[in-house]
Design a protein that fits this description.
It contains five helices and six strands; from the N terminus they run βαβαβαβαββα. The chain has 148 residues and is of the alpha/beta class. The strands form two sheets. The chain has a four-stranded parallel β-sheet, with no helix packed on it.
């Protein structure tokens, strides 16, 4: 597969180190068969995927969001799915969690939903819980680590 990537902080060199081509945000959506969103949610990134990006993605391509629901403008996503702007969406994050029974996404066409567990793996849990135990032990020793 050819991997293309965009981020406000991504350089061509960094992308190339990981076998990806650095392109503009518009190019990601215009060229991708599958656009997968991986950004931190902040004031600067809230709604960063909206109508222009979804229309550029087009009726033969898919959106995958396993990061944060707020990155994708929800009204635009609803229009994209019901209006056929995109082929479909795979979503692991929602604006309300758990997703209410009457939420529009539960009946949205061409949509695969998972309950915010896309990160789950045996290795991930070993790291997560191992770090948690290490954090507690360090705190009890009076030398906290990974403190905010």
């Amino acid at each position: 597969m050819n991997v293309i990537a965009w981020s406000p902080h991504l350089t061509k060199e960094r992308a190339a180190e990981h076998g990806a081509e650095c392109v503009t945000k518009h190019e990601v959506f215009a060229r991708a068969d599958v656009a997968s969103v991986h950004l931190v949610l902040s004031d600067a990134t809230r709604g960063i995927v909206g109508e222009p990006e979804l229309r550029a993605l087009g009726p033969d391509s898919y959106l995958v969001n396993t990061a944060r629901a707020g990155l994708v403008h929800q009204a635009a996503l609803r229009q994209a799915l019901t209006g056929g702007w995109i082929a479909g969406a795979g979503l692991d994050v929602f604006d309300i969690e758990p997703l209410p029974r009457d939420h529009w996404l539960r009946t949205a066409p061409r949509t695969v939903l998972s309950p915010h567990m896309g990160y789950v793996s045996a290795r991930g849990y070993r790291v997560f819980y191992g770090d948690a135990v290490e954090d507690i032990e360090a705190y009890l020793r009076g030398a906290p680590i990974r403190a905010l």
